[in-house]
Each structure stands twice: as structure tokens, then as C-alpha cells.
């Protein structure tokens, strides 16, 4: 599998105005020695600061984003999924009053999903094709991928697995899926899917059945 440069791996996930700042960072090494002022001034400072901590992808999550079994309201439906957007946390309710919790990244304001949905399909290492909305919004970035990318391709943003969301029985372009950008957890960036670190997505995937209900608030 071809190993992409650090900058090449993160460019697809950075807003086009912020993307120009990244173009000066040709490699991991040049990023690590970039001017601190660049990072502070950028609207994406948190994203880049996290990336700089470990450009090889082993970013250490904060404790409240690490997988854990936690207590939740007893009213939360067993087997369902809850996403608390303001906390960047996903909960899969395993039994009454107990859930598996993990950190997620979400879409930027206006691109994120809120409301009720149902998981209508599952796939491991799914193929990815840019949506019509993505192609219209960012042709400079997504047009080159309009033919799609196979699962496992390092440029494929779907990661290790995906849970496909439907609303009122109709499939949407929203998914819960993995990401190969672990330092994005806890941040809102670009597209509106709900993204888990790949290893965490692999932990969640076998526990979620087609038909699972979810609520994003």
C-alpha cells in the first residue's frame, strides 16, 4: 500500500481556505519545523497542533474520548446509538443504564447531521465515492476522486468500516465510519459524517445491527 505524505493525507479534510496554509508543509519533517505563528494564526490551529504531536497517526486521545463503559440515563433505549454533538461523544447502549462511549469527530456547522436515523446497511473497508454535494462544493478537491476509491486506499476517508444512516426509511449520505486522521477526534471539520478512530470503529461495528436506531443531538 502506497504511503502518502503527511500533508497529502490531511488535505482532503481541511477547508479550502485553511488548505492553502497546509500546502507549504510538504512533508512530516517540514510540518514539525513550521513556524509556530502559522499554527497559532490558523483557524485550524487545533487540528494542526494535534497532528504535529504525532504525524505518524498514533495521536493520544484525551481520557473522555477513549472507549469506556459508562452510566447513562435508564431511559436510553438498549441497543440504540446516541451522539452528543456538543461533547463529541458517541454512546452505544449495551444494557439498561450502561453504554459504551467513545470520542468522535463531526462535520462543520451546516454540514453536520442532527436528528433521528436508522442504520440500514453495514460494510467493512467500504468503497467511497464523493457525493454530488461534495463535488459541487469542492470540485477542486473531490473531482479527481469522482470515480471512487476502493476500501483500504489510504486516500479513502471511510476507514475500516461504515454504518449507513437512513431517515424515514430513505438512505442518506451520512454515515458513522472510521477515519485515518486520529487527531480529528473532538473536532468539527469538513464533511458531516460521524467519524471514529479506525480501531474504535472496528470495536463498535460488530455490536451494531441493521435496524439500529440512533439519535444525534
UniProtKB/TrEMBL annotation:
Residues 79-217 form the L,D-TPase catalytic domain. Its EC number is 2.-.-.-. Keywords: Cell shape, Cell wall biogenesis/degradation, Glycosyltransferase, Hydrolase, Peptidoglycan synthesis, Transferase. It holds the Pfam family YkuD. The active site is at 177 (proton donor/acceptor), 193 (nucleophile). GO terms for molecular function: glycosyltransferase activity; peptidoglycan L,D-transpeptidase activity. Pathway: Cell wall biogenesis; peptidoglycan biosynthesis. GO terms for biological process: cell wall organization; peptidoglycan-protein cross-linking; regulation of cell shape. InterPro entries: LD-transpeptidase (IPR050979), LD_TPept_cat_dom (IPR005490), Transpep_catalytic_dom (IPR038063). It is an enzyme of class 2 (transferase). One of its GO terms (cellular component) is extracellular region. Gene3D superfamilies: L,D-transpeptidase catalytic domain-like. PANTHER family: L,D-TRANSPEPTIDASE, L,D-TRANSPEPTIDASE ERFK_SRFK-RELATED. Belongs to the YkuD family. This is Putative L,D-transpeptidase ErfK/SrfK. It comes from Nereida ignava.
